[in-house]
Fold:
Amino acid sequence: GAEAIKAFDAMDSNDGDKVLFDEFCAWVAQNACPVDGTVVKAFVTSADGLAHLQGQGKKGKGPASKAGPPKKAATGGIHTKKFDALEKDFQDMLGNKARAKDLDALWKAVDFNGNDIVSLAEIDKMVVEKYPLLNSKPALMRAYQQTTQRDGDGDAWVEKPEFPALLRNLLYFNKLFLVFDDIDKDDDRRLTLEEFQAGCDRLGMGLSGADTTKAFDAMDSNDGGKVLFDEFCAWIAQTACPVDGDVTRTFVTNTDGLSALTKKKQGQAAQSPQPKRAPAGAAAAASPVPAAAAAASKSPSPTKKPAGKGVHTTKFDAVEKDFQDMLSNPARTKDLEAMWDVLDFNNNQIVSLAEIDKLMVEKYPLLN
Structure:
């Protein structure tokens, strides 16, 4: 009844009449709702995390609406056909004044609450529902960061003037991921030198012999012996490799984005602009999540409540029991260290979102 309406209104932090998972999690934390007896009262929202990127865009860059498509190259480079029909539709929608209503309708579908800004989660929803051909999460993340941090004004949201750049970037990075995934024969989302040498003809750059080793070393920026999609994209931009004739020379890496978080931790947060809308569950928001390499024993433990109220599940009981034992049983310290070593394969003591995703896909599909 009335209490349910009141609760929904409390969740719907931006008054969009729909609640995203991010808002739902914040509300559960605010209300100390037990989840299988566990209560987490502090929650970092997407807005909290992305707010650290505020003001980190290129200084002196012009308005986003003036950002044009990538430069065209005549020959050579990467060639794909999978996205031709969709690319033609996007190009027509962006260049044909008669289709301005179609572009406007697509924007309104993404910006369903009409607040003129959209989040990564909302973009992901659009891709899943309307453009499944573009539904590659690594490409989505790259397109989002490129749009907000290079083609946009440097904040954490995609605004309407930046929307054309987002559509172009979704195509571009999906094309790159198609090639990357094709070269990645063991599907671990990392390229070895052997895989690169065997599949580098897909790049159309005429690489062979010692040139492939040199190119791989240039890509492998952290000398981990394997190349992630992020590094692959950066190298493509650095070498001005054409992708269906398009050349992108500037690229936002994970390090670019994470550097903002580092500055935040160093006490420079006060100089950063605030996000454009109040974060969902701001009252319950916590400080940034500790570095992945922090010891498990130093991580704050969730509090417990009697199992009479709240959310109850049984699906995760076995894996939860295993995790709890691994985290608290000194005899299983080696198991925990072994899992970290698998995740931190290049032993640099930090792991990315892509690497965490890989762990879930390969070892814990229940959590995927």
Notes: The two ends are 34 Å apart (CA to CA).
